[in-house]
Amino acid sequence: MPIIKSNFQPDNFIFRSAQLSTIYASLLRPIRRLKFQRERIDTPDGDFLDLDWKKVGSKKLLIILPGLEGKSNSLYSRAAVRYFNKKGWDALGMNYRGCSGEANRLLNGYHMGASADVKLVTEHAVAKGYTEIMLIGYSLGGNLALKYAGEESENLPKEVKSVVAFSAPLDIQKSDERLNEWYNWHYLKWFMFPLNLKANRKKKQYPEALKNYRGFFMSGNFVYFDTNFTAPANGYDNVRDYWAASTARPYLKDIKVPSLLVSALDDTFISANCYPHEEAKNNPNLFLEMPKHGGHCGFIRRFYERSWWMEERALEFYERLTVDSERLTAAAAKAVR
Questions:
Q1: Tens digits of per-residue pLDDT, 193-206?
Q2: Is the pTM of this model over 0.85?
Q3: 64 CB burial (10 A radius; 0-12, 13-18, 19+)
């Protein structure tokens, strides 16, 4: 499928800055907190996942996969829930293991490749009777959504109609290394503090399993963290094994449900090889859109908007698919007659 030419353009010149777009989107957007209905489900390995529902009585469901250390009440999650509720969709915010306000039970937690939990949540939603499901993933969640769609290519529930991923770091190693650059130091510290808090608690519970993890707070980087915590905590032989097993990129060729990846060219988090040109050209189900501006999960047009571009784009993609599908069905029926 040819690469899509993006129509995204900031109305305010301030948001041509990747840094300002990223920070405003994740921290400053004026979006009210939402009241969710929480449901806890058990995982096959003896852990649990907390799911936050916001229902309007629809058979259509949006499943939101947050970014690193994100949750159902993160600003981008709230924006998506609010927008899709208004459009007549139910919404489900997935809280990864340890991200719902309560520590998970096991040593292992969520990470870039934990798509088995996405599979569990999606199948749980299907069992509730939803007939049309869209997955939206942000950053880490985008990688998870695409990985799940590719892994389950032949077995993906028919109810899953589309996948949309924003700013997915498809090369984990290079993206980890890029976050070490000086212009990303504030993001690095923002992430490392809560991650190290959780890791320190796990080290106290499992000292032998995490014997190489030193346990610190505001120092460190993702290469060190993935080497000494993420990989051993989640059963990988080493960090390279973790990186290779967790990236969605090898699975993109197998995706059979219409999927859109939107990554801004000025994104300071992801590396140059996170834009899968060849995979998009060779897979008719994979659409790649690369706006000039947008930052990392930013895509802000102006300071205040009734709806934000990411949610509008996701629904536009879905509705275009629906129209095209109906047109093809009608044409096929006419041809038979």
A1: 999 999 999 999 99
A2: yes
A3: buried
